[in-house]
Design goal:
The protein is about 15% helix and about 45% strand. It is α/β, with parallel strands linked by helices. It has a single domain, classed as 2,3-Dihydroxybiphenyl 1,2-Dioxygenase, domain 1 (Roll), CATH 3.10.180.10. InterPro entries: Glyas_Bleomycin-R_OHBP_Dase. It comes from Exiguobacterium undae.
Length: about 200
């Protein structure tokens, strides 16, 4: 199940506010302050620390079965996407990644596969990465990349067609468009230039 994406952005507070307006809840903020990583989780809000010198490594936000993370970067950059799967599916996916010769970084909490397309793929097995499997879903992502063959690569890695990922050509790898399920249909652009669409889950 596609559930996640991560961005680096100079617009950290603006990005958080944007997704809050879409109904996402902040579940974690970790930033580096005076050389030490510190938690700034809710109930703390930006009014409590906005004027302090904090470089946010990660801000995590959740809604239903969707998990979005972002951290401070000097420019907007797309880092990775994430699939939630069973432990057995994770092991099989890792075997296929190794057959393809791709670098794997794994620990008990998260596993990353470095693709040759300029982004990573996270494999997640912990249910607490999302609020609810039956809630709103991350339906589709469009990834632009200068290298062709991404759709076939995903098919080979996951051993199934992956229609939830669409591809387009660009000079640099970037996330172009995302679509969620939600209560009301809407289309907006986030502070990072990402087109964010919501498809109403209510059938009329």
């Amino acid at each position: 199940m596609l559930f996640h994406y991560h961005l680096w952005t100079p617009f950290v507070e603006e990005t958080e506010r944007f997704y809050q307006k879409l109904g996402f809840r902040v579940t974690q903020r970790i930033g580096k302050q005076d050389g030490t990583f510190t938690s700034f989780d809710p109930p703390l809000d930006w009014d409590d620390f906005r004027h302090e010198k904090i470089l946010f490594r990660i801000i995590e936000m959740k809604r239903g079965a969707i998990n979005i993370t972002f951290g401070y970067g000097k420019k907007v950059a797309f880092d990775h996407i994430g699939f939630w799967m069973t432990k057995a599916e994770r092991l099989a996916t890792l075997q296929r990644a190794e057959t393809l010769g791709w670098t794997v970084q794994a620990n008990e909490r998260r596993t990353f596969i470095q693709t040759p397309y300029g982004f990573r793929i996270e494999l997640q097995t912990h249910l607490d990465a999302i609020e609810s499997r039956s809630g709103d879903q991350l339906l589709q992502l469009e990834i632009a990349t200068p290298k062709s063959g991404l759709a076939a690569m995903l098919h080979q890695l996951l051993e199934r067609p992956v229609p939830e990922i669409t591809t387009s050509a660009a000079e640099q790898t970037r996330l172009v468009d995302v679509t969620f399920s939600g209560e009301h249909a809407r289309h907006e652009q986030d502070p990072n230039g990402l087109e964010v669409r919501t498809t109403s889950r209510v059938q009329r």
